[in-house]
Amino acid sequence: MRQTVTENRLFSKKDLRKLIIPLILEQTLAITVGMADTMMISSAGEAAVSGVSLVDMFNNLIISVLAALATGGAVVTSQCIGAGRREEACRSARQLVFTEAAITIGISVLVLLFHRQILGLFFGQIEADVMQNAIIYLIISVFSFPLLAVYDSCAALYRSMGNAQITLKISLLMNVINVVGNAIGVYVLKLGVAGVAIPSLVSRGVAGVVLFTLLHNPDNLVFLTRGKFKVDATIVKRILFIGIPSGIENGIFQLGRVLVVSIIAAFGTSQIAANGVANSLDSMGCIVGQAMSLAMITVIGRCVGAGEEGQVRYYTKKLLGETYFYTAVINSIILLLLPWILQIYGLGEETTRLSYILVMIHDGMAIFLWPASFVLPNMLRACNDVKYTMVVSIFSMITFRIGFSYVFGVHMGWMAVGVWAAMVIDWVFRVLCFVGRYLAGTWRKKCGLVAPTA
Q: Residue 165 phi/psi, 5° resolution?
């Protein structure tokens, strides 16, 4: 049996490289541009940095929900491809794109109508100049949400096909537009936070339109058909079966992060700015992990569709092991170069010192905890075990990340450092739960795989 599985791997080493390397480069581009945004806007002052970092936390809440819906579609499409049902895969693709776009338009309208109330609810009483920058940045950002939804869903479908090269090219185009636009908006036109937000809107619009157009090519393994759109309740239900629990999980996770930042916001502008800078740097250490998370959906989804439990286990161990290795290498390099990296931001001495401590906490612990905490759950999601990951993530967020943030940050007076210490406790709990779930093998029943014989 093992010999047969080895000879008929669904993904060769070349296939994995073609999928994963573009994903890593794409994540690198996205994170690098995020850092460039922070560095450029820092020239407008710490109030601008703080306003952007606060709104980015809220934006990530919305974006994570959209990404979860795209994940639901990617899982369904990957399983259809693995089972050899191309026509059904194409139908699911069309349902995903139009359903996600419709949901996002509704969300965007609500945010536009209640933007001031939303900022007040999440971040409470913050300094007036920070609030003004936050309002400008949020209003412009909201118009990009539907465009980003189209891009996310189309990109997820290309990844399901194993074609990450096209999404890399479009990502490169999007980020070039973003960086050039930022430079013009911030340094030439002196638009402040608007100089960062407007290029993001334009770049997301271009990327969404281009990918949507390319996905209509019938030469693709999965493509969008033309004609009047009609809701297919059966397919939408399958997408939402994965997407809704994942969306709730991602939404609560990001909401928890927003609430945690609201705690930090009470500590003053220096703490907010340090948190924003540390967040942008911490993303670098998770580049490979983020790429592997996306790859896990495609690879494991195909294996589940093909009914190959042995390959599910093989690729889970392979992808997770590689994630641990590269996460350790990248984070070690960041920690070694950190004093020089922080000088680029040009912030005050106290903000720089605090940023250093926060990055040390995150990257030092990420080496041991991040892959199992955030990459392994995507294996469970690809196996339809989405409710378990949702319950664990929500419980851990509320109990450990939020609860202990109050204990360490407020009551014990550790401020931002206490909040990040609570984050580590959250990671530990997630690792214990997800590794335990994988070893128990409960996920086999969720995706209809037969338990292995002795």
A: -70, -40
Could you give the CA distance from residue 169 to residue 179 in angstroms, rounded to a whole number? 15
CA neighbor of 262 nearest in space, from 406, 424, 136: 406
Output the DSSP codes for 348-378: -HHHHHHHHHHHHHHHHHHHHHHIIIIIHHH
pLDDT tens digit at each of 454 positions of the chain: 444 444 588 999 999 999 999 999 888 877 776 667 767 777 777 788 788 878 887 888 888 888 888 989 999 999 999 999 999 999 999 999 999 999 999 999 999 999 888 888 877 777 888 888 889 999 999 999 999 999 999 999 999 999 999 999 999 999 899 889 988 998 899 888 899 889 989 999 999 999 999 999 999 999 998 888 888 999 999 999 999 998 898 888 878 877 887 788 888 888 888 888 888 788 888 999 999 999 999 999 999 999 999 999 999 999 999 999 999 999 999 999 999 989 888 888 889 999 999 999 999 999 999 999 999 999 999 999 999 999 999 999 999 999 999 999 999 999 999 999 999 999 999 999 999 999 999 999 998 885 544 3
Q: How far is CA 81 from the centre of its chain?
A: 24
Using CA atoms, how far apart are residues 255 and 261, in angstroms rounded to an integer? 10
Amino acid at 211: L
- DSSP-based helix, strand, coil % in the chain, nearest 5: 85, 0, 15
Helix, coil or strand: residue 192 = coil
Alpha helices by DSSP H, 184-308: 194-214, 233-265, 269-285, 287-305
> Is the distance from CB of 145 to CB of 108 less than 8 angstroms?
yes
- Which among 211, 255, 239, 327 is positioned nearest to 61, based on CA atoms? 255
The residue ranges of every structural domain in the chain are 11-446
For tokens 């990001």, name the residue.
254
Using DSSP's 3-state secondary structure scheme, residue 138 falls into: helix
CA 171 to CA 261: how far, in whole Å?
A: 29
Radius of gyration of the chain (CA): 21
Q: How would DSSP label each residue in 108-126?
A: HHHHHHTHHHHHHHHH-S-
Q: Vertex 340, ends 178 and 293: CA angle to 5°?
A: 50
CA torsion 381-58-373-289 (nearest 10°) is 90
CA 142 to chain centre: 18
